[in-house]
Design a protein that fits this description.
Strand 7 (about 125-130) and strand 8 (about 135-140) form a beta hairpin. The protein is an alpha/beta fold. A 6-stranded parallel sheet has the order 3-4-2-1-5-6, sandwiched between helices. The protein contains 8 helices and 8 strands. The protein folds into 3 domains: about 10-125, NAD(P)-binding Rossmann-like Domain (Rossmann fold); about 125-155; about 160-225. The relative contact order is 0.10. It binds ligand SHN and 1,4-dihydronicotinamide adenine dinucleotide. 1,4-dihydronicotinamide adenine dinucleotide binds next to helix 1. This is precorrin-2 dehydrogenase.
């Protein structure tokens, strides 16, 4: 679970597989640079919305949204493209190019994903299910990428939209408890009790109402002691 916000992630290739990797990265608010002579229509549209499509030396992307940024360098990979990256994706359809990208990234100590032969890289991309602050990553270790997609669909049914609100509640309460309680023993007790509340079911049944500051005070006072 890497925090990619604002981090420069470099994707070599602009085909359908690169598109999938780029979409996943943009959801993490990463700063994505795609290097490819061409792009899929969707990537092309995103490059227009989230950055600049140009072929010059100027490397300055324009910030347009909070949902990550996308810069397109209209050319083939050249050695040196991995320099300074946080993550690298070798997503071209040319095995030898992907191999060279992987070699460069590895020599710089940068994690690299290779879409054509995963074993040449240092990480693989899992299927990802998000519900607000909840992230579930599903991997089959390369045994069946489409099975990872199917398992994700199964989990989408079990882990409904209610988790988003539930985790917002937990986040808020956890922040409050950490702010108010200096004693680690008390804090630990309160945080454990937080996990035993029936809030998730209340959200599902539509009976949950936001806890007011006064209600939070009362709950903390009632649960501070054993
Ligand atoms: C090893 C890995 C490396 C990596 O890319 O990181 C890899 C490799 C390969 N995938 C191939 C094919 C397909 N991959 C998908 C789909 C996904 N592939 C993803 C990940 C991974 N794919 C990594 C392992 C993850 C794991 O298993 O844990 C997912 C989970 C995440 C994502 O890409 O975002 C995403 C589903 C997301 C979702 O549905 O939510 C589909 C289905 C489709 O396109 O609809 C097909 C066609 C059907 C089929 O072949 O099964 C081929 C064969 C190429 C060839 O034909 O030669 C290779 C190459 C090889 O096997 O070496
Ligand atoms: N990991 C995965 O999930 C999957 C991986 N694959 C593998 O991924 C490869 C790519 O698949 P697609 O995106 O469907 O291919 P594609 O043919 O749609 O796209 C390939 C992209 O790479 C670019 N490219 C080629 N040479 C380049 C270079 N020297 N520098 C920069 N960019 C370059 C092309 O211009 C094109 O944009 C396939 O060859 C296959 O081996 C295929 C399916 C799924």
């Amino acid at each position: 679970m890497l925090d990619c916000e604002g981090q420069r992630c470099v994707v070599i290739g602009g085909g359908i597989v690169a598109e999938r990797k780029v979409l996943g990265l943009l959801e993490t608010s990463a700063e994505v640079t795609v290097i490819s002579p061409d792009l899929t229509p969707r990537l092309s549209e995103l490059a227009e919305k989230l950055g600049t499509g140009y072929s010059g030396e100027n490397d300055e992307p324009i910030e347009l949204t909070k949902q990550g940024r996308l810069t397109w360098l209209t050319r083939c990979y050249v050695p040196g493209d991995a320099r300074g990256a946080f993550l690298v994706y070798a997503a071209s359809n040319d095995r030898a190019v992907n191999e060279a990208v992987a070699h460069e990234a590895r020599s710089l100590g940068i994690p690299v994903n290779v879409v054509s032969h995963a074993e040449a890289g240092s990480f693989i991309t899992p299927g990802v299910l998000r519900r607000g602050r909840l992230t579930v990553a599903i991997s089959t270790s390369g045994a069946g990428p489409s099975a990872a997609g199917q398992i994700k669909s199964l989990l989408e049914e079990v882990l409904g939209a209610e988790y988003e609100l539930y985790l917002e509640f937990l986040h808020k309460m956890r922040t409050e408890i950490k702010l108010r309680e200096a004693a680690s023993e008390v804090r630990g007790r309160l945080l454990s009790k937080l996990g035993t509340l029936d809030v998730l079911n209340e959200i599902r049944q539509g009976t949950f109402t936001e806890w007011t500051p006064e209600f939070i005070d009362g709950w903390i006072a009632a649960n501070r002691e054993r």
